[in-house]
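Researcher: Quick one. two chains, 225 residues in total.
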Amino acid sequence: QVQLQESGPGLVKPSETLSLTCTVSGGSFSRYYWNWIRQPPGKGLEWIGYIYYSGSTNYNPSLKSRVTISVDTSKNQFSLKLSSVTAADTAVYYCARNLAAAGTPFDYWGQGTLLTVSS
Amino acid sequence: DIQMTQSPSSLSASVGDRVTITCRASQYISKYLNWYQHKPGKAPKLLIYDASSLQSGVPSRFSGSGSGTDFTLTISSLQPEDFATYYCQQSYSTPLTFGGGTKVEI
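Model:
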């Protein structure tokens, strides 16, 4: 059974860097893109970007200047760093996977972790 | 970016009702449209992929149709566990984008 679990600090101060980790259990790590998606309170879902096990990445242009996604295949983990955060980055952050092929859906998601930006 | 427009944004229905949600893409996306069900505090769940393919384990009362720019999710007979928010998502090109969601309420 595939499971994804997000972990992070819960609270970050404005202008600091947000760091989240997703731990994956079950299934292959190498056949998939590993994604971060967020949902601000009362708003819709926004795709942040993905990483392949090889380390290649694809980021949403709207966040690209502030985003870094990295992978640690030895731990079956991938991580998100978002710099210079503001209150607008307050959201539930999800990790999800999709098969590394054209047009594939997110077939497994984590339950999400709430990240609040506040001083 | 491809904009995804869902309608309605919310609807009220009763158990046993037939429910239809529409999703329109701002440009051609072929069959690359997916539907998810989301309940508060839970992981979103994939229902339909490639516009009309039912994800394994999803009840057959859920169905999807459409291609190009216009798509539909239908729940043939609404069950109590179906009250949730539904999102469409295009996987045709990056940045991957979602519709604004449709909240199905009692």
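Chain B has a mean pLDDT of 97.
Researcher: Thanks, that's what I needed.
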